[in-house]
Design brief:
Blueprint: H1 2-13, H2 20-31, H3 36-48, H4 55-72, H5 89-99, H6 108-126, H7 128-131, H8 141-146, H9 156-173, H10 177-194, H11 196-205, E1 209-212, E2 220-223, H12 228-248, H13 251-261
Helix pairs in contact: 1-10, 2-3, 2-6, 3-4, 3-5, 3-6, 9-10, 10-12, 10-13, 11-12
Length: about 270
């Protein structure tokens, strides 16, 4: 199919980044001093903070919480007062995770469809004895873009479809599931970021967005619309513009972006 051809092309293009989880797992185990229990906790933090953040920000957030916890061995979030609001959903999940003695099954629902497979994918390298089989696929915003979806988080049906397609590519390439996903992720992210400026300009020309000048720095890119519904429709159209342009970029132009995109937690 057309979609499978696209995924195949992206997987081949991102080949050098396919060991993203393995390299990240090695780095996490090193930080944890080879201690599997601590490495599991740290891998969980990276998974928890992975939602909606770049690799660098994720690393910073996870390591900050890690340092706080292993300085005191316990973090208690305030129940009320001004500090309570400063703890985000991710912080609260992280604190619960760090203080918990429960096994993985207890945390599946809290981590959710995106974060739990991400955690298991990283643990595959850290503790192969206990995580050798049952590797699911991480389906985040970038994978949704690669698959042609215009929303950020998958429904259960979309997750099941995405997983099956990526697993087929993995089988075809002779890779593990998480390796196929990592390769596709690296390639679509590189392509998307490569055309970002031109795609925004095109969206403005099409009347889907506008640039709002700022007193300092670059102008803001704002989606236009007379109602929230119209804005949502325009957001979907803009994602379509981005995807079309991203998939048309020549492989030769992508070399540098691919290097940046494959950065893992070891970097």
């Amino acid at each position: 199919t057309r979609l499978r051809n696209t995924l195949r092309k992206l997987a081949k293009e991102g080949t050098e980044g396919r060991l993203w989880y393995e390299k990240s797992g090695q780095a996490i185990l090193k930080i944890a001093g080879g201690n599997l229990k601590r490495a599991r906790k740290l891998a969980g933090l990276f998974a928890i903070y992975s939602s909606g953040t770049a690799v660098s920000a994720n690393t910073t957030n996870a390591l900050k919480m890690w340092a706080r916890f292993y300085g005191t061995e316990q973090i208690v979030p305030p129940k009320s007062g001004t500090l309570a609001g400063r703890f985000s959903e991710q912080d609260r999940t992280a604190i619960e995770w760090l203080n918990s003695n429960e096994d993985d099954a207890h945390h599946v629902e809290t981590f959710g469809n995106k974060r739990f497979p991400f955690f298991v994918n990283i643990m595959r390298e850290i503790d192969p004895k206990n995580y050798d089989t049952g590797q699911g696929v991480t389906v985040d915003l970038w994978m949704m873009r690669a698959l042609g979806y215009d929303q950020g988080a998958p429904t259960d049906a979309q997750y099941a479809f995405a997983s099956s397609e990526i697993m087929l590519i993995a089988k075809e390439m002779g890779w593990e599931n998480q390796q196929a996903q990592a390769a596709i992720w690296v390639a679509i992210k590189a392509r998307w970021e490569f055309i970002q400026k031109k795609a925004k300009d095109k969206a403005v020309k099409l009347g889907l967005a506008e640039y709002t000048p700022m007193k300092k720095g670059a102008p803001l890119f704002d989606v236009v619309g007379n109602s929230r519904e119209e804005q949502i429709e325009n957001e979907k159209k803009i994602i379509g513009v981005f995807r079309d342009m991203a998939l048309k970029v020549s492989a030769a132009d992508l070399t540098k972006k691919l290097e940046e995109s494959k950065a893992d937690f070891a970097d």
